[in-house]
């Protein structure tokens, strides 16, 4: 029973805290400037002042002046801007997949104890679905801002957000303990063999944990791919600085290559 509740349910809830905060285990990324991604313009800032802008993936503006670029420089600017725009989309997908993972773990575990469509599963699924919808609707990939301290305009990728989901799952389990104990007692009574019932629950809990870990590995792989994308952006930034004289020599994105694992 401990494996079933603690490992399956709480693990699936806390999985969001681990997986949404994707950069912590994938690679070491430092920001030395802020980045704002709008529909038509990407703005890089330092101390709340613009460093440079890229408009429509092709026009480079430094100190309010449009920089004349040759074909190779234009290609670098376009690739740099295009790859940056993919990052919020990938991050949003990871967040949603992690929430789906938590909901799946909740339903698997409680349905085994209380049956399909039980109130606890329905309640938790509803709350997780609301959070998922919030992420889907409020996290705008065309209005993404992160400052030079790593602070996001939204809290969907913070430890606090993951902890909020974990606490929600744990509180629901705690408040429903009476219902759970009654259901467990009934199953033990009808089974007639406490040891066999306990073994069944432990085995089922282990199965859920294995399934959640397997799905969690897929999310972790997404994080590794995102890490690799950021690493490529870091390399492109260095090329821009070495090939375009007017580029500010601020290292906006720094990826620790020793921490990077290519997906």
Automatic annotation (TrEMBL):
Sorted keywords for this record are: Signal
Q: What is this protein called?
A: DUF2884 family protein
Q: What is one Pfam family matched by this protein?
A: DUF2884
Q: Which domain of life is it from?
A: Bacteria
- The signal peptide, as residue positions, is 1-17
In its UniProt entry, the species of origin is given as Thalassotalea marina
């Amino acid at each position: 029973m401990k494996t079933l509740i603690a490992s399956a349910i709480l693990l699936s809830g806390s999985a969001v805290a681990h997986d949404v905060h994707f950069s912590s285990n994938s690679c070491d990324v430092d920001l030395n400037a802020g980045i704002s991604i709008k529909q038509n313009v990407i703005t890089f800032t330092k101390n709340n002042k613009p460093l440079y802008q890229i408009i429509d993936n092709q026009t480079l503006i430094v100190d309010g002046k449009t920089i004349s670029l040759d074909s190779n420089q234009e290609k670098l600017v376009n690739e740099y801007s295009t790859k940056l725009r993919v990052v919020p989309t990938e991050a949003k997908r990871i967040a949603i997949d992690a929430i789906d993972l938590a909901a799946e773990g909740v339903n698997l575990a409680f349905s085994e104890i209380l049956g399909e469509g039980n109130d606890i599963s329905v309640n938790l699924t509803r709350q997780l679905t609301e959070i998922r919808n919030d992420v889907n609707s409020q996290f705008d990939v065309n209005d993404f801002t992160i400052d030079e301290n790593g602070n996001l305009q939204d809290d969907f990728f913070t430890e606090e957000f993951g902890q909020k989901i974990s606490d929600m799952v744990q509180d629901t389990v705690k408040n429903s303990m009476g219902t759970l104990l009654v259901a467990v007692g009934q199953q033990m009574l009808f089974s007639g063999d406490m040891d066999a019932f306990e073994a069944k629950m432990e085995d089922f809990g282990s199965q859920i944990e294995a399934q959640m870990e397997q799905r969690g590995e897929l999310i972790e792989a997404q994080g590794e791919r995102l890490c690799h994308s950021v690493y490529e952006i870091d390399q492109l930034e260095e090329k821009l600085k070495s090939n375009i004289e007017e580029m500010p020599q601020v290292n906006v994105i720094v990826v620790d290559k020793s921490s990077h694992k290519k997906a």
